[in-house]
Amino acid sequence: MAAILGALKMLADEDWPIRGRLIFAAVGDEEVGSGGIKRLISQGVRADYAVVGEPTKLNIYSAHNGGINFSVKFLGKSAHASQPFQGINAIYAASDFALKIEKLAIRLRKKRTFTGSPSISLTIIKGGVKSNIIPDSCESILDRRITPEEDPDKVIETVRKIAEKVAKTRRVKIEFKVMRVIPPAETDRKSEIVQAALKAASKVLGKKIRLKGLRATCDMTFLVNEAHIPTIIFGPGDLKQCHAVDEWVSIEELRRGAEIYKEIAVEILK
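Structure (tokenized):
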């Protein structure tokens, strides 16, 4: 945000050497439900192009992966822990499922695309109520990152089949829920916004910048897939430092980022 405001300040100091209109949208809630960008689009915002200010280490990204969140709950039968075979331990079923998901993750890691490898991670597991009771339920929460080349329906079906196979083997039932789907997004590499951004970054940084794809998800998905606005991702900072207790960005990157934002605007609206 600081770099974008810096770019606007530089344009203002130069008496707005552009022809057209710039919209600065400081939307919130991107990490949870993307309520900010959804509201902006619902209010009818219109633009020829957009830039999402995610940390890219000053690289230009024209595509990003999507994401799917699953809940898979295994339902067994409770019993006293002194008689474990009188029940059906749901945690054992969830454990089998977790190991199969790990194997799937290893296979996915070998795939290479413009936006990196697809991935799947078991991020939360909840089961059991007391140390002397065989657990009759255990829930697994998963995060699956999908590339623009993948079919979300096929991705969902693959996870469902793994869960169903485990359920059959372990003689448990399952409750399978797709909690959230965020489609991947991609802007044509020949688009004016992509070429303008590459030119601006190369000019400011003094070297040729190559286009990249982002492994994570962001608000670009709504701008591209719902508002149909060609969009890129660009900004100072490193994605590796996000969600950490000591997030930081260098002043030099902020300064250069502001200059690149400004040059993108000038190139598009000259």
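The radius of gyration is 23 Å. The chain has seven helices and eleven strands.
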